[in-house]
Amino acid sequence: MPSPMRTAAVTEEQQQIRREIRRTLRELLAKRAGPAEVRAAVETPEGYDSALWTTLAGRLGLPGLTLPEAYGGAGCGPAELAVACEETGRALVPSPLLSTGVLAAPLIAALGTERQRAALLPRIADSTLTCALALPGDSLALALGITGDNTAAPWSGGGRSGGIQATRPDGEHWSLYGEAGHVLDGHSAGLLLVAAHTGGFPRSRTLLFLVRAGAEGLTRRREPTLDLTRSQAGVRLRDVEAELLGEEPVDTLGALAATGRAAALALAAEAVGAARGALDRTVEHVTTREQFGRPLGSFQALKHRLADLLVRIESARSLTVRAADEADPDGVAALLALAQALDAQRAAAAETVQLHGGIGITWEHDAHLYFKRAAADELLFGPAVRLRARAAERGGLFDDPATGERPSGGPAAARPSGREVG
N or C: which end of the chain has fewer CB within 10 A? Predict the structure, then answer.
């Protein structure tokens, strides 16, 4: 049965930390991550501004924001990470924050041995090591448990073929064979976390392995993407030597699902930031662009459209903030926040293109950076209707297919007492 969510008390110190993160990031990104800088960054071999990434690590500890202080992290929580993601999303900053700080680092912290954590996490925190999570199959969201149950679908491959296979030819060292696509920042990461299937049919299981950049038999290629600000790569492994993350027995699928719940919240905040960035640019345009001798923004119809858009964005933001401050073990609030944020981001991108008029439909205009981000996020992490279906399933709104009965507690267990989640 899903656990009831409870709102955690937010201290004044936490509020101050969040305000400082927001202020520092907004000021820094206004100087270093304007539209011209973003376009230049995606053309680099890494796909992002490595100097800016180092600065973000030095001034804010961004890569290790949620890592324990014992490993060089800042020891913050998901709410502080959400603030950072909202600001980077607002400027569409290309960076390895999602691949390294949101996906890979928590998995290393959760599953790694003490030796592995001590060797890797401090390097992630100081930005000298970037990571990428390589998952076979076409659905990153499914493997993370965002759009479905990752224990029920054969996304990691099975039997003798498909996915990525892990074997121990000599009975001691692990070897990986297979391919993974759509690996976020996979072409430039110094370390790959590779999910592979092992054990054959009787002892079938999925494990995570560490593969160093430059390993023999490893081939990586940067893939063309719709969203230029979120680099992806194809990864090919041909008998690549790998190191098991952690020690068996290990609950890899559970750790991936837990990481997916946290990632959904970070992605929601990022989408809210992108939607607000698109709205701000649109408001600036309609207040300076004139038609019939008056600013476009003075027409009542446009005022109504922009006001409605602001309500949608702020609604998504409120839901995201609430989810970040609640105990949400089943991830229901995070999934609803992500669905609402993707809807708001899509609406903001569409209005941005349309209200910029003729120039807005040209691929070279900045409006299309937001349009492409919204479309790509829906493909990678959505669609919103599937996220809501998953939230309903996790919240006990569907009948149990085995018994035909609704789980005990039903939908009331998926929302706090006296108020709705979203």
Answer: N
Instruction: Give the class (CATH, top level) of 254-414.
Output: mainly alpha
Classify strands 290-291 and 191-198 as parallel, antiparallel or unpaired.
unpaired
- Choosing among 2.40.110.10, 3.40.50.2000, 2.60.40.10, 2.60.260.20, the CATH entry for 133-250 is 2.40.110.10
Across the chain, which has 422 residues, the per-10-residue mean pLDDT values are: 54 90 95 94 96 92 94 94 97 97 97 97 96 89 92 63 83 92 96 90 82 97 95 96 94 95 97 97 85 71 92 97 88 96 97 86 85 96 94 80 53 39 34
Give the CATH fold of the 6-129 domain.
Answer: Butyryl-Coa Dehydrogenase, subunit A; domain 1 (1.10.540)
Look up tokens 């479309």; give the residue. Answer: 375
Q: Tell me, what amino acid is at 104?
A: A
pLDDT of residue 375: 96
Cα of 137 vs its chain's centroid, Å: 18
Q: Return d(Cα 328, Cα 49) in angstroms, integer.
A: 34
pTM of the full predicted structure? 0.90
State the pLDDT at residue 282. Answer: 93
